[in-house]
Write a structure and sequence with these properties.
With 389 residues, this protein is α+β, with helices and mostly antiparallel strands. 37% of the residues lie in helices and 28% in strands. Strand 15 and strand 16 form a beta hairpin. It is globular. The model has no long low-confidence stretch (mean pLDDT 97). The structure holds flavin-adenine dinucleotide and 3,4-dihydroxybenzoic acid. Flavin-adenine dinucleotide binds next to helix 1, strand 13 and helix 10. It comes from Aurantiacibacter arachoides. Pfam families: FAD_binding_3 (PF01494). This is 4-hydroxybenzoate 3-monooxygenase.
Length: 389
């Protein structure tokens, strides 16, 4: 098969990019290892920045997002008894939208046929070849036979564990990694949220987050040692821990219910550079990971996709080949700012095992400063709502 752009992976980054390219008349094919149901079964991001919402709007695929998404004009930082509200609407004039990654992916999947976006699911042994040349290709096996897709560009949207990043030779690559000594244990349940806005809590027993997917579906997290296993956390133990860490006010409004999903995700900060080498571009988790504090991962994938779509449509439709060459630097400038924000909010809101009284005093002082300073709140709000693209 021959096409202009071969996209590896069919998560949110890949499908957004595929639809944006198709809308501009650029040919593309998407190659994914899993089934659609498997992808929709992964419970992940819940908070969308303006860039993500605006890409869905530009594609005309935002009808359900507008109808069912919950616009949030603020969120809260909790420290012991105190709740610090960050009024993002007042401080920035913008808001975020609570709408699950699962639903966004479902909307993008549903529009495949109507928009002529070809996605091959259940492709095994996906491999990238000749990415340093102008004629890269991707091979895979499906239903027992070998397939080959020839393209002018390959875009790796295959997440942290996919093969694309590994196709960039070590001699040109740089990796930046920070691992955190805990993971987030998440629970999804069909119960109303305990608060109409998100609460990120730093309690002496550890971090907790109260989030939601809708008025009737809640998403909560606590941080746990990396050695903990999900089986050690029955629902009752997790609800008890959430009630303690979120504090008496939130606990009083918390409805408990059976978990629909429960899993532990490790926290890491990771950046791979460059994000383009030869005819291969990387987007989303394939190139970088942020710790989830601050809800940046999916949104960062969306801003990469915005830059990649501009670069590739520039190349194919507007005779602007230089934008592809600039893609890595353009994308990385925004990536690093999101990495910084996610890292600093993680540092502020978690109890690190190696921390002593001094580090804790720094957290208290910083939270005090944020509580009393509009400037400090504005800095947090403009990062949370998303820096300009
Ligand atoms: P992925 O969603 O990982 O998609 C990659 C795709 O590539 C997958 O479908 C995978 O099957 C496929 N693939 C992998 N290997 C191969 C292969 N060999 N061949 C073919 N295909 C392959 N982000 C936010 O913005 N806000 C949040 O609130 C938030 N909360 C999160 C909570 C949790 C618990 C987790 C784990 C993440 C959270 N994130 C959040 C991060 C966010 O989910 C990711 O950043 C996002 O999924 C990145 O999208 P992606 O398309 O780049 O990668
Ligand atoms: C959710 C996840 C996050 O990482 C975050 O910062 C906020 C919300 C969520 O899954 O709802």
């Amino acid at each position: 098969m021959k096409t202009q752009v071969c996209i590896v992976g069919a998560g949110p980054a890949a499908l957004l990019l595929g639809h944006l390219l198709r809308a501009e008349g650029v040919e593309c094919v998407v190659i994914e290892r899993q089934t659609p149901d498997y992808i929709l079964g992964r419970i992940r991001a819940g908070v969308l920045e303006e860039i993500t919402v605006s890409l869905m709007a530009r594609l005309g695929l935002d009808a359900r997002l507008r109808a069912e998404g919950l616009p949030h004009g603020g969120f809260n930082l909790a420290d012991g008894e105190r709740l610090i509200r960050i009024d993002i609407a007042d401080l920035t004039g913008k808001q975020v939208v609570v709408y699950g990654q699962t639903e966004l992916t479902r909307d993008l999947m549903a529009a495949r046929e109507e928009r002529g976006l070809e996605v091959v699911y259940e492709a095994a042994d996906v491999a990238l070849h000749e990415v340093e040349s102008d004629a890269p290709y991707v091979t895979y096996t499906k239903d027992g036979s070998e397939h080959r897709v020839d393209a002018r560009f390959v875009v790796g949207c295959d997440g942290f564990h996919g093969p694309s990043r590994k196709a960039i030779p070590e001699r040109v690559a740089r990796e930046y990694l920070r691992e955190y000594p805990f993971g987030w244990l998440g629970i999804l349940a069909d119960v109303p949220p305990c608060n109409h806005e998100l609460i990120y809590a730093n309690h002496e027993r550890g971090f907790a987050l109260a989030s939601m997917r809708s008025e009737t579906r809640s998403r909560y997290y606590v941080d746990v040692p990396l050695t903990d296993r999900v089986e050690e956390w029955n629902d009752e133990r997790l609800w008890d821990e959430l009630a303690i860490r979120l504090g008496p006010e939130a606990a009083a409004h918390m409805t408990r219910g059976p978990s629909l999903e429960k899993s532990i995700a490790p926290l890491r900060s990771y950046v791979f550079a460059p994000m383009r080498h030869g005819s291969l571009l990387l987007c989303g988790d394939a190139a970088h990971i942020v710790p989830p504090t601050g809800a940046k991962g999916l949104n960062l994938a969306a801003s990469d996709v915005h830059y990649a779509a501009e670069a590739l449509t520039g190349f194919f439709r507007r005779n602007e080949p230089d934008r592809v060459a600039a893609y890595s630097d353009t994308a990385l400038a925004r990536v690093w700012k999101s990495e910084r924000f996610s890292w600093s909010l993680t540092r502020l809101m978690h109890r690190f095992p190696e921390d002593g009284p001094f580090e804790r005093a720094m957290q208290v002082a910083e939270l005090d400063y944020i509580a009393s300073s509009r400037a400090a709140q504005t800095a947090i709000a403009e990062n949370y709502v998303g820096l300009p693209v």
